[in-house]
Design a protein that fits this description.
Elements: E1 5-9, H1 15-28, E2 34-38, E3 46-47, E4 50-51, E5 59-63, H2 67-78, E6 82-85, H3 93-101, E7 105-111, H4 115-119, H5 122-129, E8 135-139, E9 147-152, E10 157-158
Parallel strand pairs: 1-7, 1-8, 2-5, 2-6, 6-7
Antiparallel strand pairs: 3-4, 8-9, 9-10
Helix pairs in contact: 2-3
Length: 165
């Protein structure tokens, strides 16, 4: 089944693209309802309320709204199976915990080079301590874009077919 997932990489390595593709596939292939808290309009790229990027036919988007307000609104009004939010920051941990407690899967991203790097960030350290995420996907930091590593909720490395090298 779907796992609470955090995608980690430095800027410009494909986190948002991966979240966008996850939204589309979860919606269209797995037939789950998806809600995107698109604070900066980078995932769905809505124009006049219409997503310009394909994020799936079962996807609702709330753009130009802070994640701290968007995620609770989406959960209450759209009853999603999955909430997607890009670049979690300082004030986002509490609403992510609330989504987790409500039984809604969370797919998100954060800036960092690796797990050690990201665990030092005060904005997400509480999420690590509470084991909110069940999968951590580390994208390559340089060279060819791809997946460098995948870890489970206990930070144990999982085998992946292609490390993106």
């Amino acid at each position: 089944g779907l796992k609470h997932t955090l995608i980690i990489s430095p800027p410009g390595r494909g986190k948002t693209t991966l979240l966008r593709d996850a939204a589309r596939q979860i919606s269209d292939i797995y037939e789950k309802t998806v809600a995107i808290a698109d604070e900066r309009g980078e995932i769905a790229a809505c124009w006049m309320g219409i997503p310009q990027n394909n994020v799936g036919c079962r996807t609702d988007i709330l753009d130009a709204c802070p994640k701290t307000k968007a995620i609770p609104l989406l959960i209450r009004s759209m009853a999603p199976d999955v909430v997607i939010a890009d670049e979690i920051g300082t004030n986002d941990a509490e609403v992510i915990e609330d989504a987790h407690a409500a039984g809604v899967k969370v797919f998100s991203s954060a800036h960092g080079a690796n797990l050690t790097d990201i665990m030092k960030r005060p904005s997400v350290s509480a999420l690590f301590a509470k084991r909110i995420f069940e999968r951590y996907i580390i994208l390559t930091s340089y060279g060819k874009m791809g997946i460098n590593a995948v870890y489970d909720e206990n930070f144990k490395s999982l085998s992946i077919e292609d490390h993106g090298n």
